[in-house]
Recover the amino acids of this structure.
């Protein structure tokens, strides 16, 4: 029986529809267009890339580069589906060294916009201009233009109303675009990027090749100041970049940017490795700032796993995890930093000022060290095994990381203005006394220190709890008479969940009837008379945390809460020997500068600063 051809239902789609479908994947919003165009400019070896936008890119996106440009024929070919100059064989897919490779972006973008391409190579006198409307080439002419490529994308999605509807406000679209340009600016410090929206400059990167300079432009000076460099190589994987010291945190992860071979990506592996490195250093729901660039043999990473190339697949995710974790750990150790008292480069205090409430004038200079001096700086510190206290201007000397809210005066970046004279090593520390029943005042070889007694104690207890819970041997002091303690149903539920951890802290506790527990011993070092109330406080806080964050409380949280509750409080007088012991214990901690909640422990005033302030220098 012969087949009835009229019953066939499968047809090959024509190129136009194929492009529209591809556009559905690649071109989600103006930011995706910007990403593809800028990637092309980078692949074309441009060192100057300017992006002009109108109305968040909805009306116009124009990308101008000074890259290699295209010949007339290539300009026409680049609009064909799967036309690319970047790979030519299946083997090439195994080791992609460019940002693009699929040959899909330009035809897709051109199919959903009013598209204009002007391009010129160094070998011709004239440039080619191509005009495309909704995927159809309507004009091709020779024009005058400098070397490079300019692509304008007007009225994106004008012919796909369903897509158009999903575009957000200009502000939202702009912020997505500026995130992307910011990422590229950080990844490619030798390229000068410029983002202009409705004729106003939004972002400019200097193209100086110093990554820290781009970071200053993208993340701001205050953030850049609190970054420590990371640099680590293990086998075939090299990690570089900057991570925030533990007082520089966000309530979101948007300021964590990762790159693999220059490609901005998202990665759970990297995110997790970072979280591990900061464990115990941050408050709950706070996230570090991080710029992490991974360089790896292209063969060891598959970049062809995501429609917009926003994710990659490593041949060994474990390896990446371990390298990033180590890199971050090492950097945090080398760069552990604490704030100093007051600003360094501030005008002398004005005695006649009638604004006594703010002794720290606002015209302060901030120094941003360049990459090289940052490295030297951290090397020098590692050598001295010094924990560093870097200068930190601010209106309130005791609140670290708080900006003044006042525009900062530009200051040139030189090595000289980031000298180690401003760092304080914690050697020769001697306690002098207590201030306001809150602070321990001490001297050290390099200057004067003020420690927050509560957070200092918290750090000491936390470290010892961590140590004990891994050695399995909690120091318990037995009680003569066991006490019965009752809890609410919810408290009791959370306590029974975390009973093992609470025992590891040193509470010898067992369940004893409904919502009641029997306490036979309490943590050594904790005054027995407060053992019970501290336990109650711990449980209450664990309950609050679990409610507030809809979370099962983790062991870490138990330890952090316990250290906070067991620590000496602000307002409690302390005797000299007690303070000396505390400081001595603190100096043995891995990170004596930041408490487990992420608060600073020590502020300092270096000899150098004192000399400056008293005009001795
Ligand atoms: P891909 O980047 O995956 O190759 P595209 O559709 O983005 O695919 O670009 C197609 C081709 O057009 C590229 O391979 C490149 O040869 C050329 N091209 C695109 N943009 C530029 C540019 N700004 N400068 C020079 N050549 C470009
Ligand atoms: Mg491309």
């Amino acid at each position: 029986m012969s087949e009835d051809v009229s019953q066939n239902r499968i047809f090959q789609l024509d190129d136009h529809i194929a492009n529209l479908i591809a556009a559905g994947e690649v071109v989600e919003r103006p930011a995706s267009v910007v990403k593809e165009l800028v990637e092309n400019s980078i692949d074309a070896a441009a060192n100057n890339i300017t992006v002009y936008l109108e109305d968040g890119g909805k009306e116009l996106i124009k990308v101008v580069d000074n890259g290699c440009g295209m010949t007339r024929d290539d300009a026409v070919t680049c609009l064909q589906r799967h036309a690319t100059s970047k790979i030519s064989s299946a083997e090439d897919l195994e080791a992609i060294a460019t940002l693009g490779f699929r040959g899909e972006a330009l035809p897709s973008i051109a199919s959903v916009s009013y598209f204009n391409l002007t391009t010129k190579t160094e070998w011709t006198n004239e440039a080619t201009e191509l005009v495309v409307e909704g995927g159809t080439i309507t004009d091709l002419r020779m024009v005058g233009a400098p070397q490079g490529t300019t692509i304008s994308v007007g009225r994106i999605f004008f012919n796909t109303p369903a897509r158009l509807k999903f575009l957000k406000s200009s502000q939202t679209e702009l912020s997505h675009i500026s995130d992307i340009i910011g990422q590229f600016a950080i990844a490619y410090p030798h390229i000068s990027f410029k983002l202009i929206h409705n004729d106003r400059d939004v972002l400019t990167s200097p193209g100086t090749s110093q990554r820290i300079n781009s970071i200053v432009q993208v993340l701001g000076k205050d953030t850049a100041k609190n970054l420590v460099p990371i640099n680590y190589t293990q086998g075939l994987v090299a990690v570089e970049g900057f991570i925030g010291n533990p007082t520089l945190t966000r309530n979101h992860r948007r300021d964590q940017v990762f790159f693999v071979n220059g490609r901005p990506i998202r990665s759970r592996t990297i995110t997790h490795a970072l979280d591990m490195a900061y464990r115990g250093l941050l408050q709950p729901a706070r996230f570090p700032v991080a710029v992490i660039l991974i360089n790896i043999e292209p063969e060891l990473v598959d970049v062809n796993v995501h429609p917009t190339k926003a994710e990659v697949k490593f041949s060994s995710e474990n390896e990446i995890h371990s390298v990033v974790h180590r890199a971050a750990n090492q950097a945090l150790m080398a760069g552990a930093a604490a704030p100093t008292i007051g600003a360094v480069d501030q005008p002398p205090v004005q005695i006649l000022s009638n604004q006594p409430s703010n002794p720290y004038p606002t015209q302060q200079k901030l120094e941003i060290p360049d990459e090289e001096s940052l490295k030297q700086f951290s090397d020098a510190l590692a050598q001295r095994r010094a924990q560093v206290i870097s200068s930190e201007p601010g209106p309130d000397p005791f609140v670290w990381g708080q900006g003044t809210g006042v525009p900062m005066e530009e200051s040139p970046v030189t090595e000289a203005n980031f000298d180690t004279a401003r760092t304080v090593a914690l050697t020769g520390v001697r306690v002098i006394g207590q201030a306001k029943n809150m602070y321990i005042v001490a001297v050290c070889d390099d200057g004067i220190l003020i420690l927050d007694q509560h957070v200092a104690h918290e750090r000491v207890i936390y470290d010892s709890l961590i140590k004990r819970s891994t050695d399995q041997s909690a120091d318990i002091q037995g009680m003569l008479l066991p006490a019965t303690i009752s809890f609410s149903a919810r408290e009791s539920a959370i306590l029974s969940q975390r009973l093992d951890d609470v025992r590891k802290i040193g509470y010898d506790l067992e369940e004893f009837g409904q919502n009641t527990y029997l306490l036979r011993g309490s943590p050594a070092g904790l005054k027995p008379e407060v053992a019970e109330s501290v336990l109650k406080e711990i449980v209450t806080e664990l309950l609050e945390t679990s409610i507030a964050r809809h979370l099962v409380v983790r062991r870490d949280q138990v330890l952090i809460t316990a250290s906070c509750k067991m620590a000496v409080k602000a307002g409690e007088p302390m005797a000299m020997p007690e303070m000396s012991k505390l400081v001595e214990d603190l100096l043995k901690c891995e990170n004596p500068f930041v408490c487990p909640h992420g608060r600073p422990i020590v502020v300092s005033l270096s000899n150098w600063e004192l000399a400056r302030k008293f005009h001795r220098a």
